[in-house]
Write a structure and sequence with these properties.
about 180 residues, alpha+beta, 4 helices
Length: about 180
């Protein structure tokens, strides 16, 4: 049993021990609160990094959209016909007529269509012409093709074939 004398002699040791335990409890509480703050800050940092990544992705998409806007510029009929005439000369195609259709608004885009009638000497020439149109640096789409073949020089030993073709070509422009 603990006597009063033993307490009196060891009061400094007991007091020191109590102070050490109290200090450990306070340190443990401070460690726990600092640890929870660190985990909250780490979580917030990760959320902000995700937000930054999304913002960077959006900025990249906006840059791409601006680049596409530069590609999809409205061209007048004369410049379109210059391009198509040049392609027709390269492909050995003879353009007979051109008929512009109306323009259709598709949200932020404008779709212009042209009906081109021409003659070609073979299906190979026709395919080459259409391929060159659709692979041009400007954006052209062939949406309709009507082909009428005519055999000429039937009485000669080598009859020739002529194709009368009607193409509907679309161009797209950003408004």
């Amino acid at each position: 049993m603990i006597t009063h004398d033993a307490l009196e002699r060891n009061k400094n040791v007991i007091l020191n021990f109590a102070v050490i335990i109290l200090s450990l409890v306070i340190a443990l509480q401070l460690y726990r609160s600092a640890n929870s703050k660190i985990s909250i800050l780490t979580q917030q940092k990760n959320e902000e990094l995700e937000k930054n990544k999304v913002v960077e992705d959006i900025a990249g998409l906006e840059r791409k959209a601006e680049a596409y806007k530069k590609v999809f510029v409205k061209r007048d009929l004369a410049s379109v016909m210059d391009v198509i005439s040049g392609i027709a000369k390269e492909s050995s195609v003879k353009i007979i007529s051109v008929k512009p259709f109306g323009e259709d608004s598709l949200g932020n885009y404008l779709n212009s269509a042209f009906l081109i009638n021409f003659s070609a000497s073979s299906y190979h020439v026709l395919g080459d012409f259409i391929s060159r149109i659709e692979n041009d640096k400007d954006i052209y789409q062939v949406s309709e093709v009507n082909i009428n073949s005519i055999v000429t020089n039937v009485d000669s030993p080598t009859p020739s074939l002529e194709l009368n073709v009607s193409l509907k070509i679309n161009t797209i422009a950003y408004l």
